[in-house]
Amino acid sequence: MAVNVLIVDDSLSMRAIIKKTIKVAGFEVGKFLEAEDGKKAMRVLVDEWVDILLTDINMPNMNGIELIGEMKKDEVLSLIPVVMVTTEGSEKRIKEAMEMGAKGYIMKPFLPEEIKEALSTILGEAEYVRRDLDKGYEGRDF
Amino acid sequence: MCAETLTKAMKAAISDVLETMFFMTAQFDETGRTLKEWLSDKQLLFGASMRFSGPSSGLLWLIAPVSTLDDITANFLGIGKEEINDEQRSDTVKEALNMIGGHGFSMLDRKDTFALGIPYLVEGLKAIEDMRGASSVGTILIDIGNNHLAAGAVVD
Q: Which residue of A has its CA nearest to B15?
């Protein structure tokens, strides 16, 4: 099953690296979508089907934690698995992200294997998520 | 926290970041040379700076000649040097500092939450000299395969 991946990071280079890492890892990707902050990511989420979202934390306008908070307010968007890919590594920050509902937490600098492992685990559960999303999208007027 | 403690953590972070994300090995100059001796003002120098706050506050910086930044950017993005544009170069130096800062602070104390600002671009040695007027400063002179760059911390 090809998945749509949304990468949220204010660094153009980092978005390119994550994209390349996912491609090299061999995941079947339908669409790579990108946003440079949480606000723009919310717009993409409304317009496009997203199966998995990878986000930085430290971004202008709306940070990664706030983005998860916004997604949680929506019944459908709250089902999309989110992986944090960030430089912030304090226990407090990691706990905060996981409590908000993040499915994974990858620290920069990262090895390609870390992205692959996180995505493999999460996408293994994605069939179920997608089924739930299908139900949620029915009858929605975006 | 003094700048010396912070620069020690930054050195370890620089090694990790350059090796993992840029496929480069960093060596640190310990001969006591000054920043001006390490990086000539005659070259076009670009870099990034970023504020941090938390148990201590201050700023971090990273600067290098454009030619060195091109090598770093090419390695990071996996493209040829001739393909690099200004945006990619600027973005890469900001992201490199962001990773060094985040990784450095997480090595210092995982319980404390240091908040990192958004990295911004700086140009020329004067921008760095102006930052270093604070009481606690630390400078790291870095050699990556005959290319020089420098980083540092200023604690308020």
A: A109
Query: pLDDT in tens for each of the 142 residues of chain A?
Result: 788 999 999 999 999 999 999 988 888 899 999 999 999 999 999 999 999 999 999 888 999 999 999 999 999 999 999 999 998 877 888 888 899 989 999 999 998 889 988 888 888 765 545 555 555 555 444 4
Pull the structure tokens for residue B91.
Answer: 């973005």
pTM as predicted? 0.85
Nearest-Cα distance to chain A for B74, in Å, is: 11
Residue of B18, B23, B94, B53 whose CA lies nearest to A56: B94
Q: What is the DSSP letter of A73?
A: T
CA distance B87 to A120: 32
Q: Which residues in A7-40 are b (16+ Cβ under 10 Å) and which e?
A: bbbbbbbbbbbbbebbeeeebebeeebbbbbbbb
A–B CB contacts, 8 A cutoff, strictly below: 74
What ipTM describes this predicted complex?
Answer: 0.80
- Top residue of B50, B92, B111 to mutate, by most chain A CBs within 10 Å, is B92
The shortest CB-CB distance from B99 to any of A10, A60, A109 is to A109
In sequence order, what are the residues at sequence separation of 6 or more whose Cβ sits closer than 8 angstroms to the Cβ of residue A35? A6, A7, A8, A41, A43, A44
How far is B45 from B93, CA to CA, in rounded Å?
12
Partners of residue B120 on adjacent β-strands: B49
